[in-house]
Specification:
With about 375 residues, the protein is an alpha/beta fold. The chain contains 17 helices and nine strands. The strands form two sheets. The protein has a six-stranded mixed sheet, with helices on both faces. A three-stranded parallel sheet has the order 4-6-8. A hairpin with a 2-residue loop joins strand 1 and strand 2. Helix 3 (about 80-100) packs parallel to helix 4 and helix 3 runs antiparallel to helix 15 (about 295-310). The longest helix is centred in the first third of the chain and has 22 residues, at about 80-100. The protein starts with a strand and ends in a 17-residue tail after the last helix.
Length: about 375
């Protein structure tokens, strides 16, 4: 079995290298378990003062979960495979929670593609994290494109973006770059790829007590290389806040439809390709998560995942995108007008008693 998670400790920093380049570092259950075991081992290790996670390839930090695995397991469903699917989401979300409350500085170099599950292992963390972007960063929560929703704590971190940017990114699945990520509070510092080698040298030699301070000081030299105030999200902020402020997907569609601007037309065209049902479910998720803790968001998302596979929308989305590659999913319902509130709310119905929830142990 190949090892896709490489680890070493150097200068009291635990380095994690995601090394599955052919799959853009998509997370398998084995990788989730390796990451969890590593972080747990370093949790109280006095020889490790910080964690630095990155990729062996400039193409991607991590493109998300292994969606082909989701499809294969979800369509064949022998008992052992079905259990593996259940295990994947339970253990992935537990990993996100572990990172959120990690007691040591946790730094993620989000070079290249960082989407879905990749966002989960980069955005997690509150007081401990530092998120680095480069000119090659391609960031998104594109789950509605495959009939899923922005999970891995997306209900938590998308709600911590300015205004309605979280709703916009969740419902459209749009890809953003470094400047937009910084503007949206989805990144902390910018370092060009040409300076990564020097950054790694710094990490191997710095004696700074808080490694994040050393990285911020290093990144300061490149602050003028990127214009956050004039990025796409900043320019469209007023339109985003205006159109995505509602709690009903149909109202957002109507608002965009009454706007003749290029932004509104482009956004509608994009949303017309997404799952109508999962856009509505995503909007409901984000609104419900506004005042929830990390653990509460992850528990809710774990319940939602079960409903997603039961409904089958995600299997159709993955079929169209990566299996048959016809890019013509047959969504059910097929239009926003056909999505009803009862169906949306069914994705939040309890699956387990509270005490038996797979993530009941998360504080």
């Amino acid at each position: 079995m190949e090892n896709f998670v490489l680890t070493e400790v150097k200068n009291e920093i635990g380095f994690i290298t995601l090394d599955r380049p052919k799959a853009l570092n998509s997370l398998s259950l084995t990788m989730v378990r390796e990451l969890t075991a590593t972080l747990r081992a370093w949790h109280n290790d006095p020889a490790v003062r910080a964690v630095f996670i990155h990729s062996s390839s400039e193409k991607a930090f991590c493109a998300g979960g292994d969606i082909r695995f989701f499809y294969d397991v979800g369509t064949k469903t022998p008992m052992q495979d079905s259990a593996l699917l259940e295990d994947f989401f339970t253990e992935e979300y537990a990993l996100n929670h572990l990172i959120h409350f990690y007691p040591k500085p946790y730094i993620a170099l989000m070079n290249g593609v960082v989407m879905g599950g990749g966002m989960g292992i980069a955005q997690s963390g509150v007081a401990s994290r530092l998120r680095i972007v480069t000119e090659k960063t391609k960031m998104a929560m594109p789950e509605v494109n495959i009939g899923l929703f922005p999970d891995v704590g997306g209900g938590y971190f998308l709600n911590r973006t300015p205004g309605q940017i979280g709703a916009y990114l969740g419902l459209t699945g749009e890809i953003i770059g470094a400047a937009d990520a910084l503007y949206a509070n989805l990144a902390d510092v910018y370092v060009p790829t040409g300076a990564i080698a020097d950054l790694m040298d710094l990490l191997s030699s710095t004696t700074e007590a808080d490694i994040r301070t050393a990285i911020r000081d290093f990144a300061r030299a490149f602050a003028d290389d990127i214009n956050v105030e004039h990025c796409n999200l900043a320019q469209q902020r007023s339109s985003i806040d205006h159109h995505f402020q509602g709690n009903q997907l149909a109202a957002i569609y109507a608002s965009l439809s009454n706007d003749e601007s290029g932004f509104a037309k482009h956004t509608l065209t994009t949303m017309d390709k997404r799952s109508p049902l999962l856009m509505a479910v995503t909007l409901e998720q984000l609104r419900r998560c506004q005042r929830k803790s990390v653990a509460e968001c992850l528990r809710m998302e774990r319940t939602m995942v079960r409903h997603c596979f039961k409904h089958g929308e995600v299997l159709e989305g993955v079929r169209a995108l990566v299996v048959d590659k016809d890019n013509a999913p047959k969504w059910s319902p097929s239009s926003v007008a056909e999505v009803n509130e009862e169906l949306v709310h069914s994705f939040f119905a309890p699956v387990w008693p509270d005490y038996a929830h797979p993530l009941a142990h998360l504080p």
